[in-house]
Amino acid sequence: MTRQRPFSRISEPQLNAPTPPVPGLTPVPRDCRARLAEPATPTARLRHLAEGRVPALRQIGLHPFPTPQAPPARALRVGAWNVQQCHFGPDSAALLRGAALDVTLLTELDIGMGRTGQRDTVAELAAAQGHGAIYAPEFLELRNAPENDLGWHCNAITARTPPREVVLIRLPDMADWFIAPRRGQRRLGGRMALAARFGQGADALVVCAVHLESDTDGAGRAAQLAYLLDRLDRFAAGDPVLIGGDLNAGAGDGARDTLTDPLFSEALRQGYHWNTLNAPGPTSRISRVTNARQQNTARYDWFLGRGVQGTAPATLAATDTGGQAISDHDLIAVTVQPA
Q: Does the first or last residue of the chain, that is N or C, have fewer Cβ atoms within 10 Å of its Cβ?
């Protein structure tokens, strides 16, 4: 299936240097957000970014970590979950509490969005686990901009203990989310990854939360992953790496044979594995929230690792106590330690 071709990628200075987090993302005033939505041209998009009208796209936000802070254990229980904007906050919090995770890699989280009650869903899910969090926006949402207090759509890493270093890696754009996006979902920004280093010496581990593009083909996802792995090499500097998140593996493939997605060949080429890190079976489910690609047979969500041992991989159903879906993705989890 032919998809969108690469869109003009944002130039990101100091992309590979560890990035000090900030207490909160720099907001874009409502009237400015309305102006950013027009005109819808590639030149306008790049000008908006070059002029610094959305500085938060280069920031990492911080929710404080609990004190006292014990050193991280050598073996960590890590989860990865696309929360689908986090419409069902208490039920999502309950699922994560029950999973008893040391580190959680989260994608599709709203902050200050009308559709989710203007909540800070990152703060909610971190607090529910007794975690702190680092987070960064994928997008500034421009559709319904006046109705959003802030308009951030984010990825996050929550943890019991603070990371030693963090970095934001914005990925090559493989879809148009600004000029004529699917379902009129106009945005500034693009897919990104957030990486953090925990521990040190023989116990060091780099974890990375990532959301690869849904509105592209396998070649587009493989290109994004290749870019990510190159940048992670520089950041990790030889430390073991665990990547987790919504890879959109097999998106657009009617057979849902996700391992044919070229991103897996790219992962193997660069020394990553997945066989001991993931439980078998799909990770998607029919959502109660409108989604143009509703289905429940795909495995979009994966862990990829290099230099790590994995045990007890699991897929936890993203449902409330009544069996109703709270996301269109299930939560995946695994216990990892340096190999």
A: N
CA angle 119, 121, 127 (to 5 degrees): 115
289 closest CA partner among 84, 120, 141? 84
Q: Report the amino acid identity of residue 192.
A: M
Low-confidence ranges of the chain (pLDDT < 70): 1-18, 68-69, 71, 145-146, 252-257, 291-293
Enter the CATH code of domain 30-338: 3.60.10.10
From first CA to last CA, the distance across the chain in angstroms is 39
Distance CA 333, CA 98 (A): 12
Structure tokens at 242: 């665990």
DSSP 114-175: GGGTT-BHHHHHHHHHT-EEEEEEEEEE-TTGGG-SS-EEEEEEEESS--SEEEEEEPPP-S
Question: Cβ distance 37 to 186 under 8 Å?
Answer: yes
| φ, ψ of residue 252 in degrees (nearest 5) | 90, -5
CB 54 within 8 A of CB 188: yes
**Contact in structure between 95 and 124 (CB atoms under 8 Å):** no
Q: What is the pLDDT of residues 194-207, one digit of tens each?
A: 999 999 899 999 99
Tally the C-alpha atoms within 13 A of residue 171's C-alpha that lie toward its C-beta: 30
CA nearest neighbour of 109 among 119, 100, 95, 101: 119
Q: Which amino acid is at 207?
A: V
DSSP-derived letter for residue 214 is S
Q: Annotate 263-317 with three-state secondary structure.
A: HHHHHHHCCCECCCCCCCCCCECCCCCCCCCCCCCCCCEEEEEECEEEEEEEEEC
